[in-house]
Amino acid sequence: MVNADRLAETFVELADTLVEDFDVVEFLHLLTDRSAELVGVDAAALLLADPHGRLELIATSGDRLRAAEPHRLHTVEGPGVDAFTTGAPVDEPNLRTDGHRRWPRFAPAAGAAGFAAVDAVPMRLRTDVLGALTLFRTSPGPLGATALRTATSLVEVATIGLVQHRSLHHHQVLAEQLQSALTSRVGIEQAKGLVAERLQIDMDGAFAALRGFARAANLKLGDVARAVIEGRISTRQLLSPNPRRGPHRP
């Protein structure tokens, strides 16, 4: 059953895109993480179209998905690509049967990673489709009407937030933000690997440390990742309960 309080809190967070220091990277990770949590699936992945209309994988939840081949195939074929192309939800309750026919490369890779069913919801507002959110499950079967409504509602609120932000700051600003998100994602992945290795923790723990430090210090996630890579924030500082404002030399 969906936690009503948590769902309401998430809607408020996803609608708050008008602040001056709006962080699109954190916003998209929030959408992905909360969707997996509230819909009750094992992993989620978010695709967004870049300024040229090419799909890019922006955010994922769960190490199982990040380490798997579907992570690399996600922008080539699969339910997310289909949802973006058609602008309609896509479901496949059993990847081991019909999934192989629909997505001959994606389905076997997803199955090898332990996933048995997928659904995808387009990030769509009227005729604009910005991307798609894919939901992965380790057990076969339909997602369920309530879970699908929850996923659709979260994606719709997030899409409205992005489009609203774009309308106030012009299309070029959104394009620059999405490009920045792509660039930041590379740095974040590098920083996660560095933190995981040095602190001897898994990738989820490394990401939580980066994200927690960014929130506590009121910094953008991408800026913290870059500072960690450049050595301006030490990996041990990420675990500090009271980080000082701004990157500094360890």
Automatic annotation (TrEMBL):
Residues 168-229 form the ANTAR domain. Pfam families: ANTAR (PF03861), GAF (PF01590). Gene3D superfamilies: 3.30.450.40, Winged helix-like DNA-binding domain superfamily/Winged helix DNA-binding domain. Transmembrane segments: none annotated. GO terms for molecular function: kinase activity; RNA binding. The keyword Methyltransferase does not apply. The keyword Methyltransferase does not apply. PROSITE patterns: ANTAR (PS50921). It comes from the Bacteria. Keywords: Kinase, Transcription, Transcription regulation, Transferase. Residues 77-100 are annotated as: Disordered. InterPro entries: ANTAR, CheY-like_superfamily, GAF, GAF-like_dom_sf, GAF_ANTAR, WH-like_DNA-bd_sf. This is ANTAR domain-containing protein.
